[in-house]
């Protein structure tokens, strides 16, 4: 079978989107491609941002390939499934341009995972995959009859038909990914890196998936939930291939980059820098020293709140006090050029106390951002604590709540985001 895998051309005007707007490798499509090709399928993989192709041009490329199945992602990359644009206008625009020229259509991503019915209706695809997608995409390619493929949903006479819950990939045995050299050459961005020594291309790698914690704000319930660690040899083979293609910086997209001594020791001898997102309370001083020696130049530490009460409200399950956390962050800064304490706006936090601790950290070289508002994504515990299980209006409800709750938004948003219905009005017309 011929299969097209498409990461559309993303635009973010008037969106609440919190993620980075630079191109990043579409790891979910890379894994899917590897599994499909292992089964003997012919695969065309496209990325609108990396290849500088708008959605009309992407649709024409797909049509020329004449696939039996076209897969489109509803979030920019696996890196940002947890903070995806709520609106579906971009994948809808691609599918409207494709206009039936790509065989049967499949949507993968956080939207179909949490809210399959409205995703199907807005996009007009034949099937959505629920949860982590790579094995399910491969299974769809094996079958002529899609009606019983597990972890999928479709519409029959306008009503939702689902086949099981969300899928959790085995992940552990995923092969080392191979990226076209021209894609790597187009990836100059070093995600979450802020020092002045940016040499080589950038790339994203996934060494582990999922997180053993259940913080209230984290949108991971329907995908990348249970913690799994990928085969070490595959991770290192992938990194070595990237280094051979001129990559000088890797960003590990792991939800939580837990201390992996074997991985860090292997990176010590390789000419590559890297960034991670982690919890600082899980690192001992000697492991922070090894992290720096291995080449880490950027730590995004999910502190979220600078008070015990705020961390409890966010269900952080953190046993350390603020002074101990601050000391660990300052210690990490001794070994790593950029360390950030991520902060979320929490009503329990006293603004004066937050200002005190922010100044304390910044004066010692650790960046602590202005607390940003919390968006209740449908796949987060916070959404379900307020409204229960997501229904067909979950994204609209979360969006309206967010817009009504805050006057100032994250620093990447230049103006007030628009309502979800306005964002989707021109494209989601199926």
TrEMBL record:
Pfam families to which the protein is assigned, alphabetical: Radical_SAM
* Keyword S-adenosyl-L-methionine tagged: yes
Segments crossing the lipid bilayer: none
Domain Radical SAM core, residue spans: 197-413
* Cofactor(s) recorded in Swiss-Prot or TrEMBL: [4Fe-4S] cluster
Gene Ontology terms, MF aspect: catalytic activity; iron-sulfur cluster binding; metal ion binding
Quote the PANTHER family the UniProt record gives.
ANAEROBIC MAGNESIUM-PROTOPORPHYRIN IX MONOMETHYL ESTER CYCLASE-RELATED, BLL1977 PROTEIN
Name of the protein in question: B12-binding domain/radical SAM domain-containing protein
Taxonomic source organism: Mesorhizobium mediterraneum
């Amino acid at each position: 079978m011929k299969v097209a895998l498409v990461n559309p051309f993303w635009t973010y005007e008037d969106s609440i989107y919190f993620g980075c707007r630079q191109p990043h490798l579409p790891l979910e499509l890379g894994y899917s491609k590897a599994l499909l090709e292992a089964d003997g399928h012919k695969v065309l993989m496209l990325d609108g941002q990396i290849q500088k192709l708008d959605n009309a041009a992407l649709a024409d490329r797909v049509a020329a390939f004449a696939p039996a199945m076209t897969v489109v992602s509803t979030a920019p990359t696996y890196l940002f499934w947890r903070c995806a644009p709520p609106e579906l206008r971009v994948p809808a625009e691609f599918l409207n341009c494709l206009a039936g020229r790509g065989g049967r259509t499949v949507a993968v991503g956080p939207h179909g995972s949490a809210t399959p019915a409205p995703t199907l209706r807005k996009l007009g695809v034949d099937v959505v995959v629920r949860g982590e997608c790579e094995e399910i995409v491969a299974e769809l390619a094996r079958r002529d009859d899609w009606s019983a493929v597990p972890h999928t949903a479709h519409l029959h006479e306008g009503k939702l038909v689902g086949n099981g819950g969300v899928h959790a990939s085995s992940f552990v045995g995923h092969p080392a990914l191979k990226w076209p050299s021209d894609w790597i050459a187009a990836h100059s961005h070093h995600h979450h890196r802020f020092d002045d020594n940016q040499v080589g291309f950038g790339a994203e790698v996934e060494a582990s998936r999922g997180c053993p914690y259940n913080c209230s704000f984290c949108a991971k319930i329907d995908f990348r939930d249970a913690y799994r660690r990928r085969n070490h040899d595959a991770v290192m083979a992938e990194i070595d291939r990237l280094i051979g293609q001129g990559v000088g910086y890797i960003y590990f997209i792991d939800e939580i980059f837990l201390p992996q001594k074997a991985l860090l020791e292997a990176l010590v001898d390789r000419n590559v820098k890297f960034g991670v997102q982690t919890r600082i309370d899980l690192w001992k001083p000697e492991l922070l020293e090894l992290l720096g020696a291995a080449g880490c130049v950027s730590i995004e530490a999910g502190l979220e709140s600078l008070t015990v009460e705020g961390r409890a409200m966010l269900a952080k399950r953190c046993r350390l006090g603020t002074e101990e956390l601050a000391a660990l962050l300052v210690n990490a800064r001794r070994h790593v050029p950029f360390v950030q304490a991520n902060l979320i706006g929490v009503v329990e936090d006293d603004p004066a106390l937050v200002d005190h601790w922010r100044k304390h950290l910044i004066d010692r070289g650790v960046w602590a951002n202005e607390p940003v508002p919390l968006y209740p994504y449908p796949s987060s515990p916070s959404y379900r604590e307020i409204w229960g299980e997501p229904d067909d209006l979950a994204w609209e409800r979360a969006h309206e709540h967010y817009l009504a709750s805050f006057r100032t938004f994250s620093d990447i948003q230049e103006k007030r985001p628009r309502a979800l219905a306005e964002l989707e009005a021109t494209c989601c017309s199926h």
